[in-house]
Give the backbone structure.
Amino acid sequence: MTTITRFAPSPTGRLHVGNIRTALHNWLLARKSGGTFILRIDDTDAERSREEYVEAIRADLAWLGLAPDAEARQSARLETYEAAFAALRAAGRVYPAFETAQELDLKRKIALGRGLPPIYDRAALSLSEDEIAAKQAEGIAPHWRFRLDHAERIEWDDGVRGRQVFDAAQLSDPVVRRADGSWLYMLPSAVDDLDMGVTDVLRGEDHVSNTAVQSQIFTALIAARYPDGRTPRFAHEALLVGREGKLSKRLGSLGCDAFRERGIEPEALLALLARLGTSQPIEPIADRATLVKTFDLGTFGRAPAKFDDTELDRLNAGIVHQLDYADVAPRLPEGMDEAGWHAIRPNLATVGEAQEWWRLVTGPVETPPFAPEDAAYLEEAHTTLADLDWSGDIWRDLTAALKERTGRKGKPLFLPLRQALTGRDHGPDMGELLPLIGRERAMRRLARAAG
Ligand code: GLU
């Protein structure tokens, strides 16, 4: 059976780093077995869902390189939910309820006041046909609950958490449909997973109790409507927290735009999120095939995964140092060619910094005032460079000749040259930089520095 996974965001906001992580893991899980990765837009909540967010989700996944193999939208599947609902109703697994929100709230408070868990008391289940008809005649529309099988011990082997056990009698019958006919998350999601043949549901641990309820919804749907269906495997990953160990507001709003603006490469973000919270080392892995091959739910820990910006920056630099010219060419400064990229790349923390470093080549460069003996040395360098042949390794030839002529070595040999030629004490390898600066500019810079 091929693996089918899905990423199911609700388009009520932009994707944040936690969603991105879930999307990535579902993508990796599918790719690992040559399976299918579905983007499912959970937009049954018409009031809060926005088309602009649907588009932003697609654009973010494209930027991340996590293109789905298929896309589905819950708002386009209402008839399917209707049919599934009818089948559950015929099987006696959904029932109408008429309590108002205030009544339910009061029931909850009374239960809590008595030290009891706030489980729905199923009062609606004991309404007679006549009582139901009377309510409806009064114009009161019911909402609908799924009737759990209280006798069942709910169990599953979670891909991350291991064996999970729930006592169904400790759970409230979930509301699956509102009085206005609209759907809550619980039923459509299970219907879709069955209808689309989803084999693996991988999501955050905030969904564990939903899974307990949904496992019974799956069983009921399979019996009532999807005889060939199978309940998916479940895995719930520990939540992502900030460095300080708390669920931070900041993480909840940190999305692709912010990363892009900060110069973070998608590959860096993916390399971090693929391994964060696992026992595998976090490394600047630019090659997705490696991430796919090594992805293993068995290595995921149960402790919250800590997201650390400095770790992301470190990975980003590591990724930038591996990027090929062709990957970055459109983002590089005007005139910067492949040799320029290779010379400058090792100094970059972000691709954007290439602008600044490229100015060392194109100039103008600002040089500090030199001490008289260094100025004299640079004068010597100017004369020496004038006679050298640029077809060889010009930096090696220049420094070798100067070493011989002046007896300088080490820092006094190299540093004034670097300062005069680039205006900086540090930077890219001069052996690569000097040919890019070229004869004319180099001669001019040395002459100016010599005074
Ligand atoms: N729309 C749900 C959410 O964003 C999907 C959860 C699921 O993966 O089933 O939380």
